[in-house]
Structures are given as C-alpha cells and as structure tokens.
C-alpha cells in the first residue's frame, strides 16, 4: 500500500508539472478539458485519497493526534474539491440597466459546452459605476447595485471586487462591465457543499499546523530543545511646471525647484521627481543621463523636443536591431524615422510579427517601441497631468518621504553591501571568522535589516498600502524576511546565518534591481485590494526565504561532512530538520489563504493556474521529507541535504519560471 500511495503521489506531481507546459503550448481550454477535468486525473486524486486514508489507519496514525488531524485536513480539502467538481455550478450573468434581465445563468464548463441553469429569484441591475482613485482615471473599484426579488420580498445589494453578495447558496461576484458602463457581468457560483467542506479543511490545516509546532512531545519541539533556538523561533511567528528654459542651460538647483510639484501620473498623485526618475530610467535603462538631473531631462524633452530628439536617450540593447537602425547601443528619436517621416519600427514589426514564438528581435522591437511611445506621450502632454484644482494635494510629509525614497537607492546599496559581506563570511569560514566576530556580524545584520525595513516602510507609506503587489515588491519583502531569519539564527549558527542572510538577501535585491522588474509604485488593481493579499504574500515569501535557507544550509552541511567535521554537520542537519517545519507549513497555509482570496474575488478557490499548480507541486515535494519512516533514505544526512538543494529548483520555477516561461493569471508579479 505504501508504494502504491507513493507512486500515485509522484505521478500526480509529474502530471501537474507536465500539464503546465501543455497549457503553454495548447491553451487553457485544452488542458482543462483533457487533463484537469478528465476522468483519469480525477481518478488519480481519488486513488490518493482512498489509499492515503487506508495507509493512515493501517499505520495507526490516529494515536498521534496532531499529525493525524493534519493529514485529515487534506482529506477534507480533497473531499470538498470533489463536491465542487461533481455538484458545483459556475456561470456568468449579464445584466443591463435598460433591459429585462434574465432569470438564468449561462454556464460554461468548456468552450464547446454551454448550457444554462435557472436562478430561484430575480436579479435586476439598478446602477453600475466605476470608482476612481482621487484625481486620477485609474479604477479603484467596480460596483454593481442590484435589486433582488426573492419570494415576494425585494433586497437591494451592492456587489464589488472582493465584496460578494450571497443568497440561498448562490454567490455573486463582480467580474466585468460593458463599455458604456450600463451593463455588468457577474460570476455566479452555486456550491453549497464544496466550499464549506473545503474551508473546514483549510481551518483544520491551520490549527493542526500550530498543533504540530506547539505540542510538547512533538518532533518540532524536540528539535527545538536540541538546538536551543526557542527564543529565536518566537521571532519568526510587523503641476505647475517650470518657465520655458532650455534644460541644457538650466542648472540642477533651478530644475530641483520643480521636483516637489504634484502631478497625476500612472493613477497616483506624485511629485514631479517621480515622473522624471521613471522617465529617465525607462528611456535609458539607467538612473541618470550624462551630467543632467532627471528633472533637467524631463523638462528639456517636454519643452524642447526638437532639440532633445537628437540626444541618444533611447536604449536599444539588441545587436540585430542596432544594425537595422544603423545606431549604437543608444538611439536618438530621429533615428526611428526615415526621410519621409515614416516610423521604421512599424515596418519591421509587421514583417516579423508572424508566428507564435517571439524572437529576441521582436522582443527588442516591442521594448524600444514602448520607449519611443513614452517620449511621444510626454511631447503630447499625456504622460502626466497637472493636479486638478478640486483634488486635495498630498500632505507635505508624504511628498518629502517620496522624494527621499527616490533619492536614496536602497536596493542598489543594500545588495552590494550584503553580497560583499556574504562573500567575506563565506571565504572567512576557514579562519572561523563568523564565530570570532559575532558582535560585528550581528551589527552588520542589524544594519541591513533596519535599512531594508526603512525602505519597505517608506514604500508602504508612499503607496498607502503594504508593498506586496508585484514582483519587485515581493522580492523586497523576501530580502527582509531572509534578514529576519538570519537575525533569529545568528547567535547559535553565526556562520550559517551570516552567509545565508547576506548572500540570499543580496541576491533577492539584485534580482529586484537589475532583472527587469519595475520598481515604480502604482495603485493596486481592484481585484488585489484585499487584506488577504498581504497575508497570502507574506506567508509565501517567508516560506520561500526558509526554503532558500534549507538550500544554503544543505550546501554548507555537505561541506562540513566532506571536511570530516561530523559534529558541526549533525548540528546543521538538526537545524535543517527544524526549519523544514515552518517553511512547509507557511507555504501550505499561504497557498490555501490564496485559495480563499481567489474564492472571494473570482468565485473559485482553485483554477489550476500555472503558478497555483507549481506552488502545490513544491508543497507536495517538500512534504515528502517529513515521511522519514516511509522513506528511510531521508534519514541519511547526505540524501536529505541533496534533496533540499535540488528541491529549491521548484521554488525558483514557481516564482521565476512561471512568470517568464509559462505566464498565467499570476504573471502580474513580473511587472
């Protein structure tokens, strides 16, 4: 039975991984029909459920109540998913304010299978409106006000993003709207059994996870006593523009006068310095251009485009495109137009556009085209707008905070600081540098942690929200989480904490700074405006940080064993076993909080999106390491740490690979 359950478990992991690539090649509809919704895939989950329950009973796991309740939570989650699959109904309801509204819901189980099911009450759209952030045209929320006629009574309700209306088991979600804003599209979900059972499983998972961590005779507490880390473990669980002056003649001091002028840009009220900083970075790929400040460049391009069009501002960065345009690494605006004033990239793009695979040249053309469009938007006065007179300006303190945040390159300075110190600690291990200089190590860790905390706090204050809305912000939070973990471990394991904390946080900040992630602060789209987002991202990022620690600690432990330092290797092995608990539990709880958020936002708690699938694969693979009685190979330190090293590739695939290779609904994180 053990081998049957293990084989089905691994087969499901393999099938899910392959399915994400099949979806990339053949589309979501195909993979939903042929894999996720197929009889054989459902049968595999059913075999895992039945076989798993039988094996749990055979092993008398019910005698260990914490572990038993933890495993039973997954049984409930799978039972709930089965109820949703077989008994739940989902569909779309289109309402118009000026028309008779239907009393049925159009349901789409696949593009080729459309049917309808009736509603037991009538729903009428009284009004639809889009709410905007003050002074901008960026949507803050979409709101449908409906009148429900239910058994002779009328009920008025408001349906918005992350605000569900529920009646008699039917749940209504705001999904889309008509172009004339007189009609709304609502998702309708009828799942009276699946959702309660699944939510009960999620709740049991959270409670049993805490039980496993806190029970006095549990394996985690025994490991904690062995390493004497109980104190540290508690910390793991807070426009008015310039006069018309030539920007090539205006000095920095004169240009700086206009840096705090407030304008509307990308859905936010910002100081002009933010616009100038983004403009220069997006055009040149650098934070500065020659001897000019950001304000000098912005004012010059705005007021004197005829002169600045001859400046090599626009980064090309592709040898083939540079050859086609006859330019170097940087091009001038005039280089993109021929003698007849025709735009050259349009012709190249039309010839290269055929085919589904995007070539490096096509990608470069698209990126350069966006930079040219940015210059034209500034020239056409559409890049930003003066602050409307009827909109209150930002408080002075918030403006000063944003100017300070723009001025100090926190990520650049900190990733250099962390990487240099991480290499020093790693190289100095031969002289036991970390053990001999614990005070200095702690001081440097505190400097890095406080600096990153200030950076995140400033960004949160400026944005008016927790900074967890895109790839850049989640990498920043991950760096913070890594430094926090390093501080918790520095006293008992100074070398591991130092090398892990500095190197991994440095690499996270390096990726955020130079890997094409956009550091621009933007408002959250309405669907992301949920407190569950912060909790979901926080837990996932903490889990990734801990799994990164397991990888680094695995490498260091193998080095100790290779050097014959058995005692130190055993200490670090115990530490890996200890950290596996919060890492995997944070990941599992984070995934299922994300599922609750998805159910609140879209009406389904699991949609087989590629990132959801790979996160589940990562959780399932790391979960194997807990079953050392069933898989005796994990009792050997060499096997255990090699597993942690190679399993971290799944984390990299989940966070980076899905964004850059597979796409999907979660690809906004790459923006």
Characteristics:
single chain; 671 residues; alpha+beta; 4-stranded antiparallel β-sheet; 3-stranded antiparallel β-sheet; 24 helices; 14 strands; disordered C terminus
Explain the overall architecture.
The protein has 671 residues and is α+β, with helices and mostly antiparallel strands. 58% of the residues lie in helices and 13% in strands. It has 24 helices and 14 strands. The strands form five sheets. The chain has a four-stranded antiparallel sheet with strand order 1-9-8-7, covered by helices on one side. A three-stranded antiparallel sheet has the order 4-5-6, with no helix packed on it. A hairpin with a 6-residue loop joins strand 4 and strand 5. The longest helix is centred in the last third of the chain and has 37 residues, at 566-602.
Q: What is the average per-residue confidence, as pLDDT, rounded to a whole number?
A: 79
Strand order in the largest sheet: 1-9-8-7
Poorly predicted runs are 108-113, 230-245, 352-357, 667-671
Query: Per DSSP, what share of the residues sits in E-state strands of 2 or more residues?
Result: 5-15%
Number of helix segments? 24
Name the overall outline: globular
Structural class: alpha+beta
Q: State the helicity in percent bands.
A: 55-70%
Number of strands: 14
The main pleated sheet reads as: 4 strands, antiparallel
End-to-end Cα distance, whole Å, is 46 Å
Radius of gyration, taken over Cα atoms and rounded to an integer in Å: 28 Å
